[in-house]
Specification:
heterotrimer, A mainly alpha, B mainly alpha, C alpha/beta, B: mainly alpha, elongated, C: alpha/beta, 4-stranded mixed β-sheet, 31% strand, globular
Chain lengths: 372, 77, 396
């Protein structure tokens, strides 16, 4: 009845999705603050290190062509075990979407719309995400293409505007690495390597849909490098403007730093534009996690994923509220528990487990292909 | 099927969040359950619960429609 | 079914018509331009807000009424008082356009960290307002002293201090975020501007003050308030303030340098760059403040020939010697009298000798007060206005 929908995204769209995904909530909450004035170094190191896992994800996906992570798991582990694992993955994806949504809600409620209930923001945002995904992955891709220049442009412009406002004090960044590389590595592992870089595991659901699969891997890694650099730049700007102490103290450092912009008594109060732009990063991040989860549901429950969109969107909105009672709980869960017991198993554990099976099965698949 | 998926995901994700909360607040399972899900006076959890119920209703409707389509297909054959 | 769908969609869209949840029309809010905090008689704080009366700022509609209204309340926390201001004022207050925060002397001496946290946290205040300490005068009176050109007192003070900073360097460029950064840093103590009222404070509270050519009361800036952590411990005068600013981020200033007996040259300093080099000489820290500046000769009372290179050399030397001793005196005064590092020497030490600073950071002020300071000023006198030789020279 319904014709099989083949969704394809172009390489440019993939590039934009990866970088917007990485900016997503990372640029809102600020990352690597514990490395104090060296957080930009920490981000660069983490970005370089995470090329390895990302390359590994790409490798897994490319061994069995045109299959996403869940279909690969089905091939590798068989129906029963893979179903359990897929359900766990779905939970993981939905849980992270809820956390990202909460980050965004806290930003809006804490800074902009003080009297609006956070519940309303969660629900309206999820309705938006649901609508985009209902129209399909292609629409998300095209939407990003339109929006991306504003995202990159404004993040880059913040530094330049701050420079002209005489607020950029480069000496705040000194001394570089006063206690050696140790403290930097402590932030890199496990925090930075899992958030935001390790979360790229969700792209194992998207990569098979890129139009030129052969180049998809290179594009992803290029996007990873570029966004790593931009994140480091943004972090550098934040430190130079606020100083390491104030950056660590601030809930949303980029926003605080942007608040310092004041040019010719004319360009002022531009932090609203930043929120507008950040919204896009959050949107992409939630959409991709959500899409991953929906694809899993499609596989497990044997119904088109569009059927699940509205109910699941409501669950994520619900989760984003009950996930924590207050901001302190949200943050301390994010720091102490999520990286260890949630991120690492799903980002590294299961893919590593998958590796030998994929090698074994793909050999079989290839020889079969040759016989034909 | 959608309803089953809905309930399954709802229960398991709530469980996940409760497990994390249990760890953080050092409470027993039922205390945490009570504490995360009750509608405290003054909070606006009603809004999300309403949304959740619309989600549940939507999944009922979707299931109903899909089963009807399937049966129609069978009849056509 | 189709009509049902249409009906439902239009009903849902109806919800959007109400607009933003947090919407507030302009006629429901009043903009606070200045906040004054001082010691209360019955409670910890007395807070005064100055609210702009927007209709009087419009040239055509102005009726000669007051451009700004003030109101005071007493209580123990700033936040509560600011939200309670409607005891006397009509509209909801908005603080995002606050330009001045005047702190009373007694409160400043007891410590201001208690309410700085609120100001940073609330998110309602932007950080681009000036922090001031009211010296020898009630802080509330500062917000009540009118001025004919800039009608709202808080805007006048803000403008006044930023212009003084830009033109002569007599005021520090200390915004709320800088103040808190200095407070939380181990190697620096914050400063704020000090101001007072010349004339009688009572006269300033009426618009009639604007009708005099020589206003009965006028707000003047008097220098720098020196803080130890968050407590006021003393003041520096205007000259010393300029010297302080010169070690930080001076934009431009003017010096009067002796060039003979009872004779002076006027020098405009532009393009000044200062850098601090920190070192440790065994147990005493040692700082070299290096200032490189361009100078323009604005006027001379001496007869030296301004077409000769030697004269330029001599003047450059004179300026350097004078400014070096001037700045050194200020630093020494702070070292001996106040014993707090307001110059950020500790921060320079942290940047340049991190390990060494970690060892002494908890008693940095003691280290600072015994530090050797060396000031080097390099002046490049470039040109001397629009004339060559002075007519004074030709008299000879």
């Amino acid at each position: 009845m319904q014709k099989e929908l083949v969704e394809k995204i172009s390489l440019t769209q993939l590039f934009i999705l990866v970088s917007a995904f990485l900016f997503g909530s990372a640029i809102v909450v600020g990352i690597g603050g514990e490395a104090e004035q060296d957080s930009w170094i920490a981000i660069i190191v983490a970005c370089l290190l995470s090329i390895i896992p990302v390359w590994f994800y790409i490798f897994l996906v490319s061994r069995i062509p045109e299959k996403n992570l869940f279909e690969i798991m089905e091939i590798a582990f068989g129906k029963m075990i893979s179903k359990v694992l897929i359900l766990l993955y779905i939970l993981y994806f939905f849980y992270i979407s809820a956390r990202v949504l909460r980050d965004f809600g806290e930003l809006i409620v804490g800074d902009m719309l003080v009297n609006t209930p956070i519940e309303v923001i969660s629900i309206t945002f999820m309705l938006f995400v649901a609508y985009i995904l209902y129209l399909g992955l292609e629409v998300l891709g095209r939407f990003s293409e339109i929006y991306a220049p504003y995202l990159m442009g404004s993040i880059l412009a913040v530094g330049i505007l701050l420079l002209f406002s005489r607020e950029l004090h480069v000496k705040n960044v000194l001394p570089i690495l006063p206690e050696g590389i140790g403290p930097v590595m402590n932030t890199v592992f496990p925090k930075l390597i899992t958030f935001p870089f390790g979360e790229l595991v969700a792209f194992m659901m998207i990569l098979p849909y890129a139009s030129k699969v052969r180049y998809a891997g290179k594009t992803t890694i290029l996007a990873l490098m570029v966004s790593g650099l931009i994140l480091a730049y943004s972090s550098f700007v934040q430190i130079a403007t606020l100083g390491p102490e104030a950056k660590l103290r601030s809930k949303f450092p980029l926003l605080t730093a942007t608040g310092e912009i004041s040019l010719w008594n004319f360009i002022e109060r531009v932090d609203l534009i930043i929120i507008f732009v950040v919204m896009f990063g959050i949107l992409v991040k939630i959409s991709i996690f959500f899409y991953g989860g929906l694809k899993g549901l499609e596989l497990v429950f044997n119904r088109p994923y569009r059927a699940f969109i509205y109910p699941m969107a409501m669950i994520i909105a619900f989760m984003s509220i009950i996930i924590s009672k207050n901001f302190a709980e949200h943050i301390s869960e994010g720091i102490s528990m999520v990286p260890w017991i949630i991120h690492i198993p799903f980002q590294y554990g299961i893919p590593l487990l998958l590796f030998p099976f994929v090698l074994w099965k793909s050999k079989g698949l290839r020889s079969e292909g040759k016989k034909r | 099927m959608v309803t089953i998926a809905f309930l399954f995901i709802l229960v398991s994700s709530t469980l996940l969040s409760i497990l994390l909360d249990m760890h953080l607040y050092d409470l027993s399972f039922f205390q945490t359950l009570h504490f995360s899900l009750t509608l405290d006076a003054g909070t606006r959890k009603t809004i999300v619960f309403t949304a959740l119920i619309t989600g549940l209703l939507a999944s009922f409707i979707l299931d109903y429609r899909m089963s009807k389509e399937e049966s129609e297909k069978k009849e056509a054959r | 079914m189709k009509t049902m769908k249409l009906l439902l969609t239009s009903l849902l869209l109806l919800g959007l018509l109400s607009g933003c949840w947090d919407t507030k029309e302009l006629n429901e809010v009043a903009f606070v331009t200045g906040v004054a905090i001082e010691q209360g008689e019955d409670a910890k704080y007395k807070v005064t807000v100055g609210v702009a009366n927007a209709s009087q700022l419009n040239v055509q509609k102005s009726e000669g009424n007051t451009p700004s209204v003030t109101f005071s309340l007493e209580g123990n926390s700033i936040s509560e008082l600011l939200d309670k201001m409607n005891v006397g004022l009509t509209r909801e207050l908005r603080f995002s356009h606050t330009r001045t925060l005047v702190i009373g002397e007694e409160v400043a001496r007891e410590g201001i960290a208690g309410f700085l946290d609120y100001l940073e946290r609330s998110g309602q205040f932007r950080n681009n307002f000036t922090m001031l300490v009211a010296k020898n005068i009630s802080a509330a009176d500062i917000l009540k002293t009118t001025f004919p050109i800039q009608k709202i007192p808080s805007l006048k003070i803000h403008n006044q201090s930023s212009t003084l900073f830009k033109e002569w360097g007599g005021a520090p460029d200390m915004k709320l975020s800088d103040f808190i950064a200095a407070l939380s840093s181990k190697g620096r103590h914050p400063v704020a501007e000090a101001l007072t009222i010349v004339g009688s404070p009572e006269q300033g509270g009426s618009v009639d003050n604007n009708k005099k050519l020589d206003p009965e009361s006028l707000i003047t800036l008097v220098g720098l308030a020196v803080f130890k952590e968050d407590k006021l411990i003393g003041y520096l005068n205007l000259e010393e303030t300029r010297n302080y600013v010169w070690t930080q981020d001076l934009i431009q200033t003017t010096l009067t340098v002796p060039c003979g007996e009872e004779k002076y040259i006027d020098v405009r300093i532009v393009n000044s760059k200062s850098s601090i080099h920190a070192n440790y000489n065994r147990e005493t820290p040692n700082f070299q403040v290096e200032i490189i500046a361009e100078a323009l000769l604005n006027g001379t009372q001496c007869r030296d020939d301004l077409e000769k290179v030697d004269t330029y050399k001599k003047f450059e030397k004179d300026i350097e010697v004078m400014s070096e001793s001037m700045i050194l005196n200020t630093v020494t005064k702070v070292q001996e009298e106040y014993e707090v590092d307001i110059f950020g020497f500790g921060e320079a030490m942290r940047r340049q000798h991190y390990q060494r600073f970690q060892a002494v950071k908890d008693h940095w002020d003691e280290e600072f007060s015994k530090a050797d300071i060396d000031i080097t000023v390099n002046i490049f006198l470039r040109r001397a206005g629009t004339s060559n030789k002075s007519f004074l020279t030709e008299d000879e």
